[in-house]
Amino acid sequence: MSKLLFKLRNVPDDEAIEVRELLDANEIDYFETTPGNWGISMPGLWLSNADDFPRARALLDDYQTARTQRERARFDALRATGNAPTLWQQLRAKPLVVSIQLVAIALLAYLSLRLFPGL
Disulfide: which of 16, 46, 84, 95 matches 78 by Cβ 3.0-4.6 Å? Predict the structure, then answer.
């Protein structure tokens, strides 16, 4: 029976590729599901044989620990040189997205504060 090992939603492409390579290198049989045509299905990496799960999970845990340390060191190096993206830079890069998010937050706050207490 198949067993889900790794969810691929919101996972960077480089991380997904590295996880596939890790499974291939250790000869663990897996298959991949996509988000589908409308993006509502769950993309993920599934083990074909559930008996491989403990070994695959241990490999994945070790990989994620190493990746976390590597990415944290990269970010710290960017911050030390002053090249790390700031909040202001991110807001300026996507003004439409930020505007929509602020309107949604204001609408939710209005609905929560105005409508529900009156019921």
Answer: 84
pLDDT digits (tens, 9 = 90+) for 24-35: 999 999 999 999
CB-based contact 20:45 (threshold 8 Å) = yes
- CATH T-level fold of 3-84: Alpha-Beta Plaits (3.30.70)
DSSP 8-state code for residue 50: G
Token digits of residue 101: 């998010």
Contact 29, 48 (CB under 8 A): yes
Selection from 80, 102, 98, 81 nearest residue 89 by Cα = 98
